[in-house]
Write a structure and sequence with these properties.
The complex is a heterodimer of chains A (about 625) and B (about 280).
Chain A: H1 10-16, E1 30-39, E2 42-48, E3 53-58, H2 63-67, E4 76-86, E5 93-104, H3 122-128, H4 134-161, H5 164-173, E6 189-197, E7 201-205, E8 208-219, E9 224-230, H6 231-237, E10 246-250, E11 253-256, E12 268-272, E13 277-281, E14 311-320, E15 324-327, E16 334-343, E17 348-355, H7 357-369, E18 375-384, E19 390-401, H8 406-417, E20 425-426, H9 449-453, E21 464-474, E22 482-485, E23 493-495, E24 501-503, E25 508-510, E26 514-524, E27 529-535, H10 536-543, H11 547-555, H12 562-570, E28 574-586, E29 589-601, H13 604-619
Parallel strand pairs in A: 3-5, 9-12, 17-19, 17-20
Antiparallel strand pairs in A: 1-2, 1-4, 2-3, 4-5, 6-8, 6-10, 7-8, 8-9, 10-13, 11-12, 14-16, 14-18, 15-16, 16-17, 18-19, 21-26, 21-28, 22-26, 23-24, 24-25, 26-27, 28-29
Helix pairs in contact in A: 11-12
Chain B: H1 2-14, E1 43-45, H2 48-53, E2 55-56, E3 64-66, E4 69-71, E5 73-85, E6 89-95, E7 100-106, H3 110-118, E8 124-134, E9 137-147, H4 152-172, H5 204-207, H6 214-223, H7 225-228, E10 234-235, H8 236-243, H9 247-260, E11 263-265, E12 270-273
Parallel strand pairs in B: 1-5, 7-9
Antiparallel strand pairs in B: 2-3, 3-4, 5-6, 5-8, 6-7, 8-9, 10-12, 11-12
Helix pairs in contact in B: 6-9
Classes of the chains: A alpha+beta (about 625), B alpha+beta (about 280).
């Protein structure tokens, strides 16, 4: 049809032919959808032809059309195959729309046929209470059809032609900006677009099972608020709220936002219940707020490890992994995950784990274009300590690929001219070598030396791991600094009688061996001083050279004594340490063995931020 | 200002003089075993002002006390000036912005000489050393001083001084989660009328209100125009933070005030005075 409108007397036609044969030629039946709502995996609605209404159902196989938004409340559908059934124990009937298609999206309002033009003949019929002859009835129908058609056309024209109804609605309802809302206000109406929509989640608590979901709403001024719906309200509004569409909302409840779960910048959050009013504004463009980033550079992520606040990062994608399936412990559900490695102009890389849709959709996109080194800007990431520093997306993280923002341009420029060939270093490297002990970031578990020393039973049964910052105050020059080690397995070797060295582990002799540190040093911080045991890898970082090199220096006797000089240069240096503590017994006296597991140079900028954070906690 | 001038005069009076540290035998290399009578040694980050504000310990005339902790080894960061070198030692003045202190480094080995030569006049350096206190004069016997290469280290050092100061001050107080001015340590010997270090982070309002009840403080705070005009009231955490009192103390006062009818609870954990309510 050229004009989209309901078929006159469509409902009567449906009722007259309740079970059409599938091969028969059906008349054109177009009805309006009213009161559309989900029931299980089916949808119930009321079919309206302007004059008569009929309860109706859309079966589950047609559900996708409703979910996709093709079939909308107040919209028009054409019934292609149907059955009219009796409702058990009731005199009513209902329509089962076995096959139907969308004709029009939501109209402005419910279609009603106008009776003002029916003419003189209708009045006598009503007064008399008696039906006239069939011929007269036939004549009367023609003017009515014409009127109905005009009415529907007029509605459609209004919908597409102008926004007069919306303007009238705004004035009538006194739409208020979000910023003016407070919990002590009376009736209010807001006009907002849905800028974020969460998943429907189920929960269990003392009062039984329930479901909840929330949306982020944005008004024309860009103010945002989060709205939460539980149980019946959640089921009622979940399908009503479509991302990007605009709605009038009223009769919600406001309360002070819970800072623990704060998501948008607003002092309040909204709860909608069953009685809340949500009405879509047709034809309005969404108020999309500009995504604002507060980027943290990759080499500055250390102090954010395991903190509650989320960070934004921007970087060039260096690597994209394949999709992995991670089984969640809580409900044994598999979740897709994909790891990408990004770098920025600090020449540090970090691994970002993308989850769910970000792993499958965005991750796939990144995998396709990884050769072109795309720039990604990611909002709301959680910082973890896996492999020192790692990042993870959460439910509301936003990933923009090659965004049109100045930071992306700057990064692209840096990468093209310098970064492409630069040697990258993982942001976590140095802060934690990969180890079976699960060594974590040097910014977690930070303690003072006195906390270790004052607790002699620390590490009983299981070594205790901590981070600390201290100065090396003394390395005794004449201690046994190293041992002779097998070059293959690093185990201790013994000198053979003839020549070479024997390794028990490898069960063979070798002409050469290497030296490996096993060293004791004294360390101080602002609270105490104590001895620490240091092994080869960590000792090399403290001393500044390998044990072999130091041995060569020791052999150079002379006035300058480079051996002593090297040790003295290592003294009074400041480091970040990751240590393990175990109790030890020596000559009947209880002692502590403090072993260094990792050594990292002090990043004074990060250290200042860390200490300022500690100062804030101290004041609280 | 007078105090600062006094310090400067003191430095000027002794600079170039014949005084030597009394413990010349104790160098950085000695395997000096700390005395069993003393607590474990620490390495305190300090500012020069903290050193001059320090008081003398009662039992040992050599050591100083800062924030209730015996000071032995210290670390400072500042600019080197007035550097004068001899065969046996180098003297210089360290200026970290809070004051100036005279320093002395003995040149025992080649590495000492190399280290001394690496420092030029006006350079920022990090010092590790032992604090000396002799006849009212405070000097630093330097174990190590090295150029600052990462200038974030300067800001980091001052932040560290603040942190360790607060940490040690907090350790000394008997009441946890509560900060108040340090008690005046005993003064002995050459130090007279020593002013205890000011706790910069204390709320002056709280310190000035000794004797005033917590209820009165809470009521005053809620009567403040900015707070009384807020429809939703003020959250208790905000009140506790601003007044510098613990949450337990605050809630006790709040309960009393609610019983009196002076304030009421609006929404969860928010309170408002009945005036203009």
């Amino acid at each position: 049809m050229a004009a989209k409108t309901v078929t006159p007397d469509a409902v009567s036609t449906l009722l007259a032919n309740p079970s059409p044969d599938s091969t028969s030629d059906l008349p054109d039946i177009v009805v309006q959808v009213l009161d559309l709502k989900a029931t299980g995996n089916k949808y119930m609605f009321t079919a309206n032809d302007g004059k008569t209404k009929l309860k109706a159902m859309i079966p589950s196989d047609m559900r996708s059309q409703v979910l996709s938004g093709a079939i909308q409340n107040l919209g028009l559908i054409r019934v292609l195959d149907y059955t009219v059934n009796d409702i058990p124990n009731k005199s009513d009937k209902y329509l089962l729309a076995i096959k139907c298609e969308a004709v029009s999206p939501a109209l402005e309002m419910e279609i009603k046929s106008e009776e003002s033009g029916s003419g003189i003949l209708l009045k006598p019929k009503v007064e008399g209470g008696v039906k006239t002859e069939g011929a007269a009835a036939g004549i009367l129908l023609k003017p009515k059809q014409e009127v109905v058609t005009k009415s529907a056309n007029q509605i459609l024209r209004e919908q597409h032609g102008n926004s007069a109804p919306a303007a009238r609605m705004a004035m009538t309802r006194r739409v208020r900006p979000l910023v003016s809302l407070n919990p002590y206000q009376g009736n209010w109406t807001i006009k907002v677009s849905v800028t974020s929509k969460g998943n429907m989640r189920t929960y269990k608590n003392a009062r039984g099972d329930g479901c909840v979901f929330n949306v982020e709403l944005t008004d024309e001024d860009g103010t945002q608020i989060q709205a939460t719906m539980f149980n019946n309200a959640a089921r009622k509004f979940f399908d009503k709220f479509v991302l990007g569409k605009v709605y009038y909302i009223s009769r919600g409840t406001l309360k002070v936002a819970n800072k623990q779960f704060k998501t948008v910048q607003n002092d309040y959050e909204m709860t909608l219940n069953e009685n809340s009013e949500v009405e879509e504004v047709v034809g309005e463009a969404s108020f999309v707020p500009e995504t604002k980033f507060n980027f943290v550079q990759i080499d500055q992520l250390g102090p954010h490890v395991n903190k509650s606040e989320l960070v934004d990062v921007i970087g060039v994608v260096k690597n994209v992994s394949s999709t992995m399936s991670i089984r969640r412990k809580s409900d044994n559900e598999s979740i897709p995950k994909r790891d990408i490695t990004i770098a920025d102009d600090t020449k540090k890389t970090v691994v970002v784990s993308l989850w769910n849709e970000l792993a499958t959709t965005t991750g796939e996109e990144l995998l396709d274009i990884v050769d072109k080194s795309p720039v990604v800007a990611i909002k709301s990431l959680k910082v973890g300590d896996f492999q020192g520093v790692s990042l993870s997306t959460i439910g509301r993280s936003v990933v923009l690929v090659n965004p049109d923002i100045p930071e992306a341009k700057n990064l692209r420029s840096w990468y093209d001219f310098e970064g492409k060939d630069a040697a990258m270093d993982s942001v976590g490297s140095g802060s934690s070598p990969i180890s079976n002990n699960g060594i974590r970031s040097v910014y977690t578990d930070r303690i003072h030396l006195s906390d270790i020393i004052s607790n002699p039973s620390l590490g009983d049964g299981k070594p205790a791991f901590f981070s600390l910052r201290g100065h090396i105050t003394f390395i005794k020059p004449d201690q046994a600094m190293w041992y002779r080690a097998c070059k293959t397995c690093n185990k201790k070797v013994t000198e053979s009688f003839g020549s070479g060295y024997w390794c028990d582990g490898c069960q063979k002799s070798d002409e050469q061996c290497s030296l490996r540190y096993i060293m004791v040093a004294k360390v101080s911080d602002g609270s105490a001083e104590t001895f620490i045991s240091v092994f080869n890898q960590e000792a090399e970082k403290i001393v500044g050279c390998s044990a072999d090199d130091l041995d060569n220096l020791k052999l150079q006797e002379g006035e300058d004594n480079p051996y002593q000089m090297t040790l003295k240069e290592a003294t009074w240096a400041q480091h970040l340490f990751r240590v393990s503590v175990t109790p030890n017994e020596y000559n009947g006296e209880k002692r502590q063995r403090i072993t260094v597991r990792a050594v990292v140079p002090v990043d004074f900028a990060a250290e200042s931020r860390f200490i300022l954070e500690e100062l804030s906690k101290m004041r609280a | 200002m007078y105090s600062s001038a006094s310090q400067f005069d003191g430095n000027a009076a002794f600079s170039g003089g014949g005084f030597m540290p009394s413990q010349t035998t104790q160098g950085p290399d000695s395997s000096f075993v700390p005395s069993k009578n003393r607590d474990a040694q620490s390495l305190l980050p300090l500012t020069v002002k903290q050193i001059y504000d320090a008081s003398q310990s009662s039992d040992d005339k050599i050591n100083l006390i800062i924030d209730g902790v015996d000071v032995t080894n210290v670390t400072l960061v500042g600019r080197v000036s007035n550097k004068a070198g001899r065969i046996t030692d180098v003297t210089f003045v360290l200026d970290d912005g809070t004051g100036r202190i005279e320093c002395n480094k003995w040149l025992h080995e080649a590495v000492d000489t190399n280290e001394a030569e690496a420092i030029l006049e006006g350079m920022y350096a990090r010092l590790h050393g032992q604090l000396k206190h002799f006849q009212g004069k405070r000097t630093l016997n330097v174990f190590s001083f090295r150029p600052v290469t990462d200038f974030n280290e300067i800001a980091s050092h001052f932040t560290d001084c603040i942190y360790v100061h607060l940490y040690n001050s907090k350790l000394r107080t008997s009441v946890p989660n509560q900060q108040h001015s340090s008690p005046i340590p005993p003064t002995i010997g050459y130090q007279a009328q020593v002013v205890p270090p000011t706790n910069q982070f204390s709320d002056q309002h709280v310190n000035g209100q000794k004797g005033v009840t917590v209820e009165a403080m809470v009521l005053d705070f809620l009567h403040h125009p900015a707070n009384s005009s807020r429809n939703e009231g003020v959250h208790r955490d905000h009140i506790a933070q601003h007044l510098g009192i613990s949450l337990d103390k605050l809630m006790l006062a709040v309960k009393n005030l609610i019983d009196e009818g002076a304030i009421y609870e609006t929404i969860g954990d928010h309170y408002k005075s009945i005036i203009n309510g």
